[in-house]
Amino acid sequence: xxxxxxxxxxxVEEDLKSNKYEKIVTRFPPEPNGFPHIGHAxxxxxxxxxxxxxxxxxxxxxxxxxxxxEDTKYVEALKDAVEWLGYDWIGEVKxxxxxxxxxxxxxxxxIKMGKAYVDSINEEEIKEYRGTxxxxxxxxxxxxxxxxxxxxxxxxxxxxxxxxxxxxxxxKIDMSxxxxxxxxxxxxxxxxxxxxxxxDDWCIYPMYDFAHCLSDYIEGVSHSICTxxxxxxxxxxxxxxxxxxxxxxxxxxxxxxxxxxxxTVMSKRKLLELVNExxxxxxxDPRMPxxxxxxxxxxxxxxxxxxxxxxxIAKANSMVDVSQLEFCIRDDLNQKAPRVMCVLDPIKVSxxxxxxxxxxxxxxxxYDVPKEGSRKIPFSNEVYIEREDFSExxxxxxxxxxxxxxxxxxxxxxxxxxxxxxDDEGNIVEIKAIYNPDSKSGQDKSxxxxxxxxxxxxxxxxxxxxxxxxxxLYKNEAPEGLEDLNPNSLSIIKDALIEPAVITEKPDxxxxxxxxxxxxxxxxxxxxxxxxxxxxxxxxxxxxxxxxNTEEKQKNKTTPKQEKKEIVHxxxxxxxxxxxxxxxxxTNELNLNNEVSNILARDEKLSSFYEEALTKLNSPxxxxxxxxxxxxxxxxxxxxxxLKFTAKEIAQLVKMIDEEIISSKIAKQVFxxxxxxxxxxxxxxxxxxxVQISDPxxxxxxxxxxxxxxxxNVKKYKDGNQKLFGFFVGQVLKATGGKANPKVVNExxxxxxx
Length: 754
Ligand code: ATP
Ligand code: MG
What we know:
Blueprint: H1 7-17, E1 25-28, H2 38-53, E2 57-62, H3 72-84, E3 94-95, H4 100-112, E4 116-119, H5 123-129, H6 147-158, E5 168-171, E6 186-190, E7 204-206, H7 208-218, E8 223-227, H8 234-243, E9 252-256, E10 259-261, H9 268-276, H10 291-297, H11 301-311, E11 318-320, H12 322-336, E12 339-340, E13 342-343, E14 346-351, E15 357-363, E16 374-380, E17 382-386, E18 407-409, E19 414-422, E20 428-435, E21 453-454, E22 456-458, E23 463-470, E24 490-498, H13 500-504, E25 510-513, E26 517-521, E27 532-537, H14 542-547, H15 550-556, H16 560-569, H17 577-589, H18 594-602, H19 604-616, H20 620-635, H21 647-658, H22 664-677, H23 681-688, H24 696-709, H25 711-718, H26 724-735, H27 742-753
Parallel strand pairs: 1-2, 2-3, 8-9, 10-11, 12-25, 14-20, 18-21, 23-27
Antiparallel strand pairs: 4-5, 5-6, 6-7, 13-24, 14-17, 15-16, 17-22, 18-19, 19-20, 23-24, 25-26, 26-27
C-alpha cells in the first residue's frame, strides 16, 4: 500500500512520523436522515480503511443535530452498511447528541471569553447583514451585549423561554472576512422539536460547524476527513478549537472529492423524494444507488470495495461512469458465479426424433474459472428456447436457429428446424425440430458445423420464475429532476423458465444465466411459490454496446424490436415501388447496408431528410447512420418542421466527425444539445471546448497517470487478462471527458502496455 499512497495517507504518515498523534483516529459521521448510498461507501472505505491501515480506529458517529429529519431506521441502515462492507467501529455507535451537554458548556465558555453573543435580528436580516463576496457585512447592534447579558439570554434560550428564531448564538469573528463563512457564524439556534434520542431535553441545537469540530475533539479524532464542499468550513473548525484553548492534540480537517456517478443522483434529499413519492419501491429498491439497494440487487461487497479502490481518492470533484461500477461487479462475479440456463421469453421446440429422457451432467463453470461443481440438466423431446434465438427470416450474420441453419443446445445436442407452427394471427407458437444423436456436447461425431450454442430448458422439468430486469434509474447522464427518470427502469417477466437445479439448491448465491447476465434471488420477495430473481448486470457493457458503430449493430440485427416486428407481422410488409427505388439507390449507389437502407427507404420523412442532408455533404454512410438512428428517434413523434435542427446542421455535425474534429461519442452529446436547444453544432463544440484531442503529447501523460493509478490492473493485464484493455482505454477517455480520439488512445495504450 505504501508505494501507492493517496494524499490522505501521505498526511497520516507524516503526522505519525512527527509524533503529532499517538493513535490514528478517524470517524464516519453521517447524518441519520436517509439510507447511505455508494458515495457513503467511498467515505466508509476511506475512513475505516485508513484506521485499519495504521492500526488506529474509526468511530461510527451519527451526526444528529437536526431533530426534524432524523430517525432510528436510518441509524440501523447506516450500521448495516458499515458492517456489510466488512468494517467494525470501536465500542458503541456514537451520537453527536450525546455531547450536547459538553457542547453547551463550550458555548458558555466562548461567551465568557467575549467570543460569542446572542443575536436577536431575524433570519432575513442575518442574511442581509452578512454582505456579499465583494462587500463587507455589518454587525448587528446586539453584538454589543455584555457577557452577563449574553449568558443570561443563552440560558433562557436553553430553558425554552423563547420561540423558534427569536434568538441565535453567534461566534464573534469578523463581519468583513473574505471567507463569508467566518462572518460571525451561527453556533446555536432555537428549535422546539422532538429529537429521536434526546426527546424534549433540548430546545436549542448546535449548528454543524460548532458541533462537528467539538465532537471530533471529544472523541479524540486525529484526522477529520470530509468532502470538498466543507473546504470553507475548515476556518471555523480551526477557529473554534483554537479559541477554546483545548488540551492537545486536536483534530484537523482534510477534504477529498465526493463521488458522483452518472445516470443517478447521490443526495439523500433527492433519494428520499423518490422513496416518499413512490417512484421506487423503498430505500432498498434494487435501482437505487443506496448500499441497501445495491446489496438487494446482488452486488457483492467485494465489488463495491474494489470500485472504491479503483476510483481512488482525489482532491478534484469528478463524475465516475456508472459502467465502472458495473465493470467491478461483472469482474467479481465472472470468477464466482455458476453458469446456469434460463429462458426469459420461451418458445416451444418439439424434437420429433428424440424418445424418452435423460440427464446431462454439465459443469457450472467454464474452463477458465478455477472453481468446480456441476449439476444434471434434464433433457427430453420438448424444450423451450429463447424466442429471439429463432428467426424465420434471418438477416445476414444471424448465427442462431433458422429454417436453414442448425444450432447447438448448450451442453446437449445440435437441432435442425423442420417446421414452424403459427397461430391464426401468424405468431410462431412452436418449432418442430430434429436432433442429431451423434452431436452430444463433448462427444460430437456429427461433423455438423454450427455457429452458436443457445440456452434452453426442459419443458417438463423447468421451473417458472419471476425475473426483474433493471435499467438505469435516470435516462440522462446528469439528471436534474424527476422529469429525467427513466420510465423503463424496471421490467418484470413473470413466466421465465429455469433449469430445476437452481431452484432445488439454496439460491443464496449469484448466478450467471447464460447469455443473459448475472442474477440474484431477491432476498425479500423470493418465496418457494414465486421465486424472484433480480438482474444484477448484463454480461457486456450496455453503454459500449450502444456506442458501437451503427454498421456493426446492423450486422447483428438482433435488437428485440426488430424481432418483434417479424413475429407480429410474420413477414415484413413488401416495399412499395417508390420505396424499392430508394432502397436500390441506397444499397447500390450509396453502398449503405440493407438494414439502414431499409429504415430510410420505408419512412418518407427520414428519406427526404436524408436526401436533403446529402445535398449539403457528400458523406452517405455517416449521414445515414446518424439519421437512421438518432434523427429517426425524433421523427417518430414529430414532423420535420417541428425538429429543433435542420438537415444542414446534421451535415455540419457529421462533417466534424468525418474530419475527426470531434469523436462520435462527443457527437452524441452535441446532438442531444442541438435537439434540446436548437443551437448550431459548431457553436456548441466551440462554446464547450469539445474539440477532439488527437495529439499524443497530450494523451500520453494521461495514459501514464492511468497506468500509475491502477498498478493492480496493469499486473492483471500483463498476466493475461486481456479484457482489461478496455478498462484502460475507458479510463483515458473518461479523464478527457470523452474528448480524446479513441483510435489514437487505442494505439497509444497498446504501445504502452505491451
Ligand atoms: P447527502 O448530500 O447525500 O445527504 P451528506 O454529505 O449530507 O450527503 P452525510 O450523511 O452528512 O451526507 O455524510 C456522511 C459522510 O459521508 C460525510 O463525511 C460526507 O462527506 C460523506 N459523503 C457523503 N456523500 C458522499 C459522496 N458522494 N462521496 C463521498 N463521500 C460522501
Ligand atoms: Mg448532510
